[in-house]
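Recap from last week: sequence in, structure out.
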Amino acid sequence: MHDVQAILDAIGCKQAALFGVSEGGPMSLLYAASYPQRTSALVIYGSYAKQSRARDYPFGWDDQQWQRVLQDMEENWGSPQSLSIGMRTAGAGDDPLRADRIASYFRASASPGAAAAIMRMNRDIDVRHILSATHVPTLVIHRTGDPVIEVGQARYLAQHIPGAKLVELPESVHTPWLGNRDAILDAVEQFLTGTQRARVSERLLATILFADIVGSTERVAAIGDNPWRELLNEFYVQVREVLQQYRGREISTAGDGFLAAFDGPARAIRCASALGDAVRPLGLKVRCGIHTGECELIGNDLAGIAVHIGARVAALATPGEVLVSQTVRDLVAGSGLALRGSGLTQAKGRAGRLAPVPGCAELNCAAVPR
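Predicted structure tokens:
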């Protein structure tokens, strides 16, 4: 709290709005109650008044949960296998590559003992008694499916802080920079300014390439988790080399697949074909789906119906096959690429056909010959 005061003094800021995240929430609450003249507003996200359960407080973790968390941090801190709160908070999920990166970050940031000591300090935090003394405009934001801090914590804060406003968002992620970040920013902007700028979505035409490894579940079962993780890392090394060669842009990776974007469909098809050759020495096969359409650009990510269609096309590809939509087939006419019909057509009432995609015209698929 005194650090915050020192920073405001150093930059000549007489009054500021505070944004308290997770365990930063109690400190922000204490600051606002102690220095209301220096606090213009308070935003509390994914936070709590007390993180340990008690007879008069049915939220937070009980003693057994705390014991499991602290023991895991001391024994597995900085390991991709860790079940600690840190890995769940950072959104490692089922992505081995992301888990490795997060684990490396944790190892570089703190020792197991230091991390556990911080968590023990957090276990003892309790600011319930100062909530009624918080007399600055307060917004409490919480994701209803937060896996770390249950939503009841936020509701308790909103009920006990005079005049507080509660905004619940329908997501199951804790870290604010993951998931739908714009929903958080919009709520904060509306609260602090009284208005919200209309978002003009940035759209562009892009060719979407989806690819995933065939038979990954069986492969993991056959070779084990650690060898699979090493194999998957090598797979992504090969993928990125091929993407760079064909000027593709990596959008996201999830589990055993990836999404990439290209500025031309012919280049995407050649990249997908080359990808199959690149990963074959690893004993892997991939199925690829390609579609071209108008996408919404959200930061570095792409969204919209075109992305959904690309995913649908990829799901229909057979092992080792590159399957493209009719749009792609039309656009590569004259490119020298030879495609064959796949017999897959989007049409209502026909067995063995693609299910209709809302907002999409007739979708036929063609395959790149092996």
